[in-house]
Amino acid sequence: MSIVEDLKWRYATKEFDNSKKLSSEQLENVFESLRLSTSSFGLQTWKFVVVETPSLREQLLEHSWKQKQVVDASHLIVLCIPTDFGKDHIAKYVESTAQIRGVGLDTLDGYQKMMEGFVSKKDEKSLEIWMTNQVYIALGHLLTACAAMRIDACPMEGFISKEYDRILALGEKKLKSVLVCPIGFRNEADKYASAKKVRFPKEELFIHI
What we know:
Layout: H1 3-9, H2 24-35, E1 47-51, H3 54-61, H4 69-72, E2 75-82, H5 87-101, H6 109-120, H7 124-148, E3 152-153, H8 161-167, E4 175-184, H9 202-205
Antiparallel strand pairs: 1-2, 2-4, 3-4
């Protein structure tokens, strides 16, 4: 099927079939789609926490506006940003680039200094906003990849980040949760699965100049 048909099939799944689980191959493809996500400078300012433990997901339900997708989906992915992002992360990325592409570190010195300069001009709040925006890009990759594989997903902002961070001990991992996305397979009884998609016509969205 074409990508357009994939996107027409996709919807924010309200009810998951809790008896259906992703295969290991499907899960690895989901992970790889996230790993290959676009990011500013290629810096990949994110971590993806996969919550598989049922007891933890039950605890998270209370802090997710009681949205049952959190416990019923096959897997729960929490998209996070680092709380300690800085020069060390940039240096690690540059070293990885040099190794993978087989070039000397000195050839990337200018690029490294440019990235460090960009980051140094941001205060703590603006840096957090910038990294959060990168996570939304990764979420877009995730949703599109899932649609192509006929895996259902439900992107969620409706959760209490501080409680997620506490329950999952994300602070100890120097992470902060910013988005949640349960993935799995829709319950055929979900009335929204067959609801017509509501989008404005192209004439209202595109401006040709």
